[in-house]
């Protein structure tokens, strides 16, 4: 036994020795690779430091050798990152060993070659740096000075600060701070600066980005703002989004206008290239607006502009302009009272504008006296905490001056959105309707009546200056008539005197719902929209506990929390008093959350942009439901039980769409139409996907009780024409033709479209993947109300002769039309065809497009803001004439070579456009 044990031990010892010998031999190359990769990383890090020193010494390198060296350093940085990914020192030894034997290019050898190249680059860089330090530097490129620009009249009061900002654009500093109390006009200066950049003849910026940071700003939120302005795609993580932004802006000149900064922001984490200044011939500048001078300093601003209240003369001019100069000066008593009221505004521009607008409707001396007394009493009874709240009593006066309780309630609802948020008018109107803020209406078309009232309220709020025009970041259109926003001072005031109790933490970067019981108790409206509430550690456990025991909200807004925890949705069922629930884009997957079916008082439900597979029959428990939105559902199919819609007797608006044009289950909508036919239900607005024109005919027979507002048609196989737009089919389809507002046609065999029908409410038309389409013609009368047209992948279309008859067209998108040769058909060459409202023109993937007009004539685009062109190699001449309205130049996003080969009618025409090379 002992001999056997000794033999075993000897064998183990011998085997261990062999293993040590073998693995020791094999380990040595891996150890060498580790060492060489580390040496290479250190060498590249030294190169990056050398590059930084060179750019500081020579911020505008013009020598070819210098530019070549900078490019090679960037390539070296990319190569070492790739090599480190291949050679992961953190992997298990066996995995690395296998990789070593199967690798066709051993890491150690590659690292050795790159190390030699890095050392050579270091020597070359040191020589370039030495030469740069010995050579006097020329000043950076300057833009035109402010006095050389014809600035619009509305910039008069901000002219001194605007001039200082414009001079900053021409010097070598990288960041400028603009600071002052809320309401003094910092945002106005940034907007004027953005617009003024479009007037500069030799503007050095490829992109001018005006984004709002606001209170509680997070990296993710600021990234979303930047992405929206640049028009690039969303990324799944902050790191990936930062890399995308950095990759897009790295080789471009840009001006970042950062509004509403409350604390230092790490712009590198956002993806904004650093440092600011003139780097490698690229101009990178930032203007930071904040209430705090210290914050501007923390953001790296050496130069700063202090903004304060207006002096007495300028304050009076601003007040008088908004209140009505002619009316005030007509009566000496009113003039004296007006000067006293203007003095009560203490030179604050925001207060002068809003109070002035409120006084524009006051006609008698007694009215002016009453207002002066009311303002004085309001200010005496208020004890605002801090200078930024000093305007609250004046905002309250303007709020009380609105014409109706309805307008006041609608104004307050705007404060439910995040600070400095650009609110879509369509989204706002939908909210007001769902909250029941608009009056009950006995009109046959309730939805249309509500929308008309809502838009008149928006116009009144904008006219009062309590609500400002916003920016539509999606198309970089500024200013925009599609969005509105609240000034942060006005929003704070609105939340302070809103009736009842509201819990508003919108856009605050929350990762879990508020835990304080006091915040939830007696809250009528809860807005946690645009946060990142997710199933983080501890959040789900707390939700549904004591904090919600006494909560009785009537409205809850949770939209745009993309990973809302299931536990949170389940807890909503205890809020039986809810009448309004918005769960748009909250990450609901597969099963419909049946807990919602317990909310028997619910009148408004929005579940759009989720991944819901089917609707449960329990949804019919919501007998009071009036508005059900399920747009842009992700999944391939959505199952709707037969009889569901007929049981929802109070339903007025129903929208059911998938997000993909090819992912709709066949005949999924048949149960809906069956229910509508059998029950005699009345719907003011219906939106559906349809697979056949026979379904359109069935809907038309239900009109006017059922109004089809949005119709998306797809897979119309065998249909060579489109009856929906044809006057020939007006008898059987007239009900739909008269009510449809939006129409899309995708993935069909349509060969010809004759659009000669009277469609009085049609605003949006989209054509996509119509591979057999040959011709499209549209009569002048039929298209009188069109707002948007998109045509995609129409391989055989020759021209769009009908486009010139679309006076309300705002967005024209043509993609994948392989047979298109001209955008407009032949006409009178001496006539200028005008697109009065077109703002976006996208020409993508049109390989045969040769001209905008076949007759060589010109087109006028008074409101054009943005042009996108890619894949149009034959288009060599732009015969466009945008209006010289003092607005920003038209951005043309295009390839560098395509832009360089363009032929222009004159230099004046070319000066209207600014290329954004991508």
Give a verbal description of the structure:
Residues 30-86 form a coiled coil. The protein has 918 residues and is of the alpha/beta class. Among the domains are: 22-134, no CATH class; 155-306, Rossmann fold, CATH 3.40.50; 311-401; 765-918. The protein has 29 helices and 37 strands. The strands form eight sheets. It has a 17-stranded parallel β-sheet, with helices on both faces. Helix 7 (219-230) packs parallel to helix 8, helix 11 crosses helix 13 and helix 18 (425-435) crosses helix 19 (446-464). Mean pLDDT is 78; it is low at 17-27, 89-93, 100-105, 136-142 and 536-540.
Attribute tags:
918 residues, alpha/beta, Rossmann fold, 17-stranded parallel beta sheet, six-stranded mixed beta sheet, 29 helices
Our count of helices gives 29
Number of extended strands:
37
- Cα(first) to Cα(last) distance is 81 Å
Q: Which residues form runs of ≥5 with pLDDT under 50?
A: 17-27, 89-93, 100-105, 136-142, 536-540
Evaluate the radius of gyration: 32 Å
What class do helices, strands and sheet pairing give? alpha/beta
Strand content: 15-25%
Shape: globular
Mean pLDDT: 78
Give the helix level as a range of percent.
25-40%
> What's the main sheet like?
17 strands, parallel
């Amino acid at each position: 036994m002992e001999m056997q044990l000794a033999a075993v031990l000897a064998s183990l010892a011998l085997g261990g020795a062999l293993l040590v010998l073998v693995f020791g031999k094999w380990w040595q190359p891996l150890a060498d690779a580790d060492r060489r990769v580390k040496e290479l990383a250190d060498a590249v890090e030294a190169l990056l430091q050398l590059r930084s020193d060179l750019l500081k010494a020579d911020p505008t390198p013009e020598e070819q050798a210098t530019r070549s060296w900078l490019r090679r350093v960037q390539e070296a940085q990319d190569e070492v990152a790739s090599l480190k990914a291949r050679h992961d020192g953190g992997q298990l030894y066996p995995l690395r060993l296998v990789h070593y034997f199967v690798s066709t290019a051993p890491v150690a050898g590659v690292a050795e070659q790159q190390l030699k190249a890095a050392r050579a680059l270091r020597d070359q860089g040191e020589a370039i740096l030495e030469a740069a330090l010995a050579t006097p530097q020329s000043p950076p490129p300057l833009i035109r000075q402010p006095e050389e620009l014809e600035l619009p009249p509305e910039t008069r009061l901000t002219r001194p600060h605007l001039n200082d900002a414009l001079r900053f654009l021409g010097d070598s500093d990288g960041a400028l701070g603009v600071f002052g109390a809320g309401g003094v006009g910092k945002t106005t200066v940034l907007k004027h600066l953005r617009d003024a950049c479009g007037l500069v003849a030799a503007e050095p910026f490829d992109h001018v980005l005006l984004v709002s940071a606001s209170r509680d700003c997070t990296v993710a939120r600021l990234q979303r703002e930047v992405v929206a302005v640049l028009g690039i795609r969303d990324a799944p993580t902050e790191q990936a989004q930062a890399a995308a932004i950095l990759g897009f802006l790295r080789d471009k000149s840009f001006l970042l206008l950062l509004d509403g900064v409350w604390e230092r922001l790490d712009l590198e984490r956002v993806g904004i290239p650093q440092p600011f200044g003139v780097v490698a011939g690229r101009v990178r500048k930032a203007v930071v607006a904040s209430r705090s001078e210290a914050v501007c300093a923390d953001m790296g601003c050496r130069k700063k502009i202090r903004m304060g209240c207006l002096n007495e003369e300028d304050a009076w001019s601003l007040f008088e302009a908004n209140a009505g100069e002619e009316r005030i000066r007509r009566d000496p008593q009113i003039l004296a009272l007006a000067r006293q009221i203007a003095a009560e505004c203490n030179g604050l521009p925001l207060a002068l504008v809003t109070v002035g607008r409120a006084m524009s409707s006051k006609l008698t001396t007694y009215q002016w006296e009453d207002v002066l007394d009311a303002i004085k009493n309001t200010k005496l009874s208020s004890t605002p905490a801090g200078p930024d709240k000093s305007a609250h009593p004046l905002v309250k006066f303007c709020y009380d001056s609105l014409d109706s309780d309805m307008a006041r309630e609608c104004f307050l609802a705007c404060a439910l959105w995040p600070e400095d948020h650009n609110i879509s008018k369509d989204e706002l109107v939908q909210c007001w309707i769902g909250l029941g803020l608009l009056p009950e209406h006995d009109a046959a078309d309730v939805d249309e009546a509500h929308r008309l009232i809502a838009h008149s309220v928006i116009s009144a709020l904008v006219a009062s200056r309590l609500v400002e025009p916003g920016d539509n970041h999606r198309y970089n259109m500024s200013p925009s008539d599609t969005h509105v926003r609240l000034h942060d001072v006005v929003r704070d005031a609105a939340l302070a005197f809103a009736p009842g109790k509201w819990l508003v933490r919108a856009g605050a970067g929350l990762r879990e719902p508020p835990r304080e019981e006091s915040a939830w108790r007696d809250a009528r409206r809860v807005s946690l929209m645009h946060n990142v509430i997710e199933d983080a550690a501890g959040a789900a456990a707390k939700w549904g506990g004591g904090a919600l025991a006494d909560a009785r909200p009537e409205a809850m807004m949770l939209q745009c929390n993309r990973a809302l925890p299931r536990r949170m949705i389940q807890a909503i069922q205890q809020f039986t008093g809810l009448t309004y629930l918005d769960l748009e884009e909250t990450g609901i997957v597969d099963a419909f959350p049946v807990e919602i079916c317990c909310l028997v008082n619910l009148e408004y439900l929005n579940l759009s942009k989720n991944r819901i597979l089917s609707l449960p029959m329990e949804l019919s428990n919501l007998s009071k439901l009036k508005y059900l939105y399920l747009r842009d559902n992700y999944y391939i199919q959505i199952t709707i039980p037969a009889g569901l819609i007929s049981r929802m007797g109070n339903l007025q608006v129903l929208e059911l769409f998938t997000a993909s044009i090819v992912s709709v289950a066949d005949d999924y909508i048949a149960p809906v139409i069956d229910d509508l036919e059998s029950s005699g239900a009345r719907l003011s607005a219906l939106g559906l996907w349809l697979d056949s024109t026979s379904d359109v005919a069935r809907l038309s027979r239900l009109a006017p009780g059922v109004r089809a507002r949005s119709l998306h048609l797809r897979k119309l196989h065998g249909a060579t024409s489109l009856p929906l737009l044809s006057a020939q089919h007006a008898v059987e389809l007239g009900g739909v033709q008269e009510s449809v507002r939006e129409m899309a046609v995708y993935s069909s065999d349509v060969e010809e479209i004759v659009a000669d029908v009277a469609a009085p409410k049609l605003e949006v038309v989209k054509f996509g993947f119509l591979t057999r389409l040959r011709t499209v013609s549209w009569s002048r009368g039929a298209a009188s109300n069109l707002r948007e047209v998109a045509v995609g992948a129409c391989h055989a279309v020759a021209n769009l002769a009908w486009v010139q008859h679309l006076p309300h067209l705002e967005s024209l998108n043509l993609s994948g039309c392989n047979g298109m040769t001209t955008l407009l058909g032949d006409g009178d060459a001496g006539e200028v065809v005008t697109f009065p409202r077109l703002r976006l023109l996208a020409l993508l993937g049109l390989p045969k497009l040769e001209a905008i007009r076949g007759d060589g004539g010109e087109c006028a685009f008074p409101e054009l803001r943005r042009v996108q062109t890619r894949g149009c190699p034959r288009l060599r001449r732009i015969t466009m004439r945008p209006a010289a309205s003092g607005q920003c130049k038209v951005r043309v996003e295009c390839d560098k070579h395509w832009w360089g080969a363009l032929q222009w009618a004159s230099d004046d025409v070319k000066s209207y456009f600014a290329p954004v090379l991508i």
